[in-house]
Specification:
mainly alpha; single chain; 79% helix; 4 helices; 108 residues; extended
């Protein structure tokens, strides 16, 4: 059993580590331009992460059994349409998730 003192000490240590991690890039690159590798990562990593997430989300889609991947495809389509029309990532994420969940329950 963890005592209150130990739990508070552990929480303080974790908070300091997280704060240090968040501060590190700002302290490192505050006075000079970042190196080309960091510029590359800054430019291309977000798109690569999104592509990986889409592949991961669609890996279990099955066209051979009902509902034939309809909730997945409609959910992805809804995310694209919502994002292109509203330009709000949170609305795209939550809206398409809600649409997917409703369709997977109704059709599944």
């Amino acid at each position: 059993m963890l005592s209150l003192k130990m739990a508070l000490l552990a929480s303080l240590c974790i908070a300091l580590v997280i704060f240090s991690e968040r501060l590190f890039p700002f302290a490192l690159f505050s006075r000079k331009d970042p190196p080309p590798l960091i510029r590359f990562i800054e430019k291309y990593i977000p798109s690569m992460v999104i592509a990986i997430l889409i592949v991961y989300c669609l890996k279990d889609m099955s066209f051979s059994s009902s509902p034939y991947g309809v909730p997945y495809l409609v959910g992805v389509g809804a995310a694209v349409v919502l994002h292109l029309t509203l330009k709000n990532p949170m609305v795209s994420i939550f809206g398409s998730t809600i649409i997917y969940m409703i369709l997977s329950r109704v059709l599944g």
